[in-house]
Amino acid sequence: DAKTTQPNSMESNEEEPVHLPCNHSTISGTDYIHWYRQLPSQGPEYVIHGLTSNVNNRMASLAIAEDRKSSTLILHRATLRDAAVYYCILRDLSNTGNQFYFGTGTSLTVIP
Amino acid sequence: DAGVTQSPTHLIKTRGQQVTLRCSPKSGHDTVSWYQQALGQGPQFIFQYYEEEERQRGNFPDRFSGHQFPNYSSELNVNALLLGDSALYLCASSLGVQASYEQYFGPGTRLTVT
Lengths: 112, 114
Hints:
Chain A is built from no helices and 9 strands. Chain A has strands at 9-13, 18-23, 31-38, 45-50, 55-56, 61-64, 70-75, 84-92, 106-111. In chain A, a hairpin with a 6-residue loop joins strand 3 and strand 4. In chain B, a hairpin with a 2-residue loop joins strand 5 and strand 6 (53-57). Chain B contains no helices and 11 strands. By secondary structure, chain B is an all-beta fold.
């Protein structure tokens, strides 16, 4: 699986949008982009995933660059409950193992 | 609809002992993966079970073994415990093994080896 690069930490003010970047310059055409987050003392939680087009769900939006070498997770209005470590993960469609290779993620701090 | 459940929540063992951790997948899911998460690190993949067989394995020694039962629940066994095995052990379930499928994680079992 291709590697991803994320900033170690980010801060956001409460009720403001947050853009969490992820670089994946070696992504292949069959890699899905997944985002998970892990709140303190909990297991990781699915946020969103996509392949080529931008995706929206009730939690967030995923913006995928046209060349797919980077993506951005967008939280439209950060709340204190969004403080977590966010992981950007690539999964190869041709690899049927479906395991995830986590990096160290981005630790998001939300300031009241 | 119950999510992924794991037991026990916490466990303290001594070096050299053996431990068994248990996981029940989300209702309707048939695939279980196990991860180890050391303090301050991201989860590391141990192995995955589907149709009662180990399908994929990460870079973990043979001291780590598992099992999946006909009801899709799973166990993780660790023999000859080392201090370095102290970690949060996470179980994740999914429907099938396709890369597009999201995984649902349990709250984990905190293992402390003394």
